[in-house]
Each structure stands twice: as C-alpha cells, then as structure tokens.
Design brief:
By secondary structure, the chain is an alpha/beta fold. It is built from 4 helices and 6 strands; from the N terminus they run E-E-H-E-H-E-E-H-E-H. It has one domain: Rossmann fold (3-Layer(aba) Sandwich). Strands 1-6-5-2-3-4 form a 6-stranded mixed sheet, with helices on both faces. Bound molecules: S-adenosylmethionine.
Length: about 170
C-alpha cells in the first residue's frame, strides 16, 4: 500500500519493524532503503520479538546491514511502533513490512498506523505491507488525511514458508 506523494530518495527513512534474520531473508526494506539513500539515514524500529520471527535480534540486523554494505547508513532502535520514539514530521519515507498484524488488537494496529503518519513529513510517502486487514489500514490512512492511498497484492517476493499463494488481504 502506497500513499501520499513524495520521493523515494528521501533524506530520512524510517522502517517500523526493522528486524532481519539472514536465513529468512527478512527485514529487507530497511536495507534496501539504505541502499537507495543518496543522503540521510535509514532508521529502523523493532521490538525484536522472536515469537513473530525466529532468530530475531538487533545484532542480526546489524550483521545483515554490514553484509549489505549499508551499516554506516542505518540507525536501529528498540521501540514500539505504537509509540514511535521520533518527532512529528521527521521522515520523508516510512515503511512497515509484515509487522502491523503482529499487534494484537485493532486499536493497537490503528495506533501504529497513526504513528507512521505522525512521523511522516508533509509530502512524504508511506508504504505498509501486510497479510491481512489492509482494507482497514486503507480506511485509517484516508481518515488520517493521507492522499492517493492505493492497495495491491504483495506478489511472489513476499512468499514465505514454502510454496503457496502469495499473501494478500
Ligand atoms: C513477521 S516479522 C517481520 C519482520 C520484517 N519487517 C520483515 O519484513 O521480514 C514481525 C516483526 O514485527 C515486530 N513487532 C511486532 N510488534 C511490534 C511492535 N509493537 N513494535 C515494533 N515492532 C514490532 C516483531 O518484533 C518482528 O520483528
């Protein structure tokens, strides 16, 4: 789901849920974003919950960033995406990958979406990838004033756990 006008080559880039374990090839968006940055930082936030992803840790993500050659462009924070530790309007691009559904309540998921919008600069761009409830996310983003909210399937690159249908919502 993409919404809002703006540019990818932002000065600042936030990823809520930044975890990555190499075996799962997870956490790719933060590292991909870091590779695309011309200036600024790619900033990740995660609670590093192993119940959501095995081998989950800030150290694994740091190692992956080093392997990808972007360790000097990322900042990792331990934090909750329902209460992001950042100022309002501080990022040009915000992404969240397969993480909001891990919040246990609809109110919590709504709060995470509100936080993603809060830290986005006017004119910035937000991408939220998830496996369910994305119609609700779309409605929440529109209610929060985001423009050009679009929704589409995630495609085969988001397959995990073996063959099967791609995750859609
Ligand atoms: C299924 S993993 C996805 C990881 C990675 N973003 C990816 O695309 O592969 C879900 C991630 O969400 C994180 N998470 C769950 N609840 C969170 C919360 N309230 N705040 C921040 N991170 C959270 C977990 O620690 C875990 O790393």
């Amino acid at each position: 789901m993409w919404c809002g006008p703006g540019c990818w080559h932002g000065r600042s880039f936030a990823a809520t849920s930044a975890s990555s374990t190499w075996a799962a090839a997870a956490g790719p968006l933060l590292l991909l974003a870091a590779k695309h940055l011309s200036t600024g930082r790619a900033v990740g936030v995660d609670l590093w919950r192993s119940v959501d992803q095995s081998g989950n840790s800030i150290e694994a993500t740091q190692r992956n960033a080093a392997t990808e050659g972007v360790a000097d462009r990322i900042d990792l924070h331990t934090g909750d995406m329902t209460a992001l530790p950042f100022d309002d309007r501080s990022f040009d691009v915000v992404v969240s990958s397969l993480a909001v559904h891990n919040i246990g309540t609809p109110a919590g998921r709504d709060q995470a979406i509100a936080e993603a919008v809060r830290v986005l600069r006017p004119g910035g761009r937000l991408m939220l990838a998830d496996i369910r409830a994305t119609r609700r996310y779309q409605d929440r983003l529109a209610a929060l004033g985001m423009l050009d909210v679009a929704r589409r399937g995630l495609g085969w690159r988001f397959w995990w756990g073996g063959p099967g249908p791609p995750p859609i919502s």
